[in-house]
């Protein structure tokens, strides 16, 4: 499901995205939709220009986690008279562009490669956790990842299998070295999600979560 687009970057791995609002996409992103700590996928633009016009058979995407949100409402900062209120604008000009936007902060955790068949995305065939080699572009589409994709991103070897014996989280150090107060809580949220997706690995995940929770408690007392 597409939820927005990339609009800015703060670093090579930290990006800002804008969530779609009314009339901007087929599906409006409801404020009730869970966003914090969700895995997202950002596909690169079409690679046909690098293949002599031929349609690509695979597609690379960056995988990231949403670690924060921000609301922007320039309407409140305007000075001078207003010809119409916000409610009147919705009635008389429903197709006007709303300046109230919701932005999300995304930290990249790695990349995945999908097969492409008849223009449709297929299975994940390769996974890399760590800092991506490429950078994203303004306007790249942001999509939510489903459970199967999240599982494949965390299982190395053959990501097309259901074997969870090689569960990895090599991006944890990247998360915890970011200077953001919500990063430890995002990490705990990720582990809770992985416990649900990989119940046979819950004992190892609980140990990691306890260590992170203890670190969060110590830092909060400083």
Give structural notes.
This protein has 222 residues and is of the alpha+beta class. It has one domain. It contains 5 helices and 7 strands, in the order E-E-E-E-H-E-E-E-H-H-H-H. It has helices spanning 86-92, 147-154, 172-176, 183-197, 202-220; strands at residues 2-9, 14-19, 39-43, 58-72, 101-117, 120-129, 141-144. A 6-stranded antiparallel β-barrel has the order 1-2-5-4-3-7. A hairpin with a 4-residue loop joins strand 1 and strand 2 (14-19). Helix 4 runs antiparallel to helix 5 (202-220). It is globular, with a radius of gyration of 20 Å. The model has no long low-confidence stretch (mean pLDDT 80).
Kindly report the average pLDDT value: 80
Protein structure class: alpha+beta
Radius of gyration: 20 Å
How many discrete structural domains? 1
Helix content: 10-25%
| Topology, number of strands | 7
Strand content: 25-35%
N→C terminal distance: 41 Å
Unreliable parts: none
Question: Strands, helices and their partners?
Answer:
Elements: E1 2-9, E2 14-19, E3 39-43, E4 58-72, H1 86-92, E5 101-117, E6 120-129, E7 141-144, H2 147-154, H3 172-176, H4 183-197, H5 202-220
Antiparallel strand pairs: 1-2, 1-7, 2-5, 3-4, 3-7, 4-5, 5-6
Features of this protein?
single chain; 222 residues; alpha+beta; 6-stranded antiparallel beta barrel; 24% helix; 29% strand
Task: Provide a brief overview of the structure.
This protein is of the alpha+beta class and 222 residues long. It has five helices and seven strands, in the order ββββαβββαααα.
